[in-house]
Design brief:
By secondary structure, this protein is mainly α. The chain has one domain. It is 84% helix and 0% strand. Helix 1 runs antiparallel to helix 2. The model has no long low-confidence stretch (mean pLDDT 84).
């Protein structure tokens, strides 16, 4: 249920948006690092278990990143 937002709420809305954006960007960077660094380690790995560990970590980081970006979008729509 949308709330009535007044002009006085603008600084709070902006601060909240910047917080959400920062969280989403943080996890996107973690995902990027995992994909880039993990792939390098995986390509150099000699054991198949290393692949499973890389895959699991990449999937987890993808899910977390998706969650934070979905939260950002959901809250942006509420602010309209």
């Amino acid at each position: 249920m949308p709330m009535d937002i007044t002009y006085e709420d603008e600084p709070a809305k902006r601060q909240f948006f910047e917080y959400l954006q920062g969280e989403a960007e943080f996890w996107l960077e973690r995902l990027h690092e995992c994909a880039e660094n993990g792939l390098k380690r995986f390509l150099d790995a000699k054991e198949p278990e290393d692949y499973q560990e890389f895959r699991t970590k990449l999937i987890d980081r993808t899910r977390v990143t998706k969650h934070y970006f979905a939260n950002l979008v959901r809250n942006l729509r509420r602010m309209e």
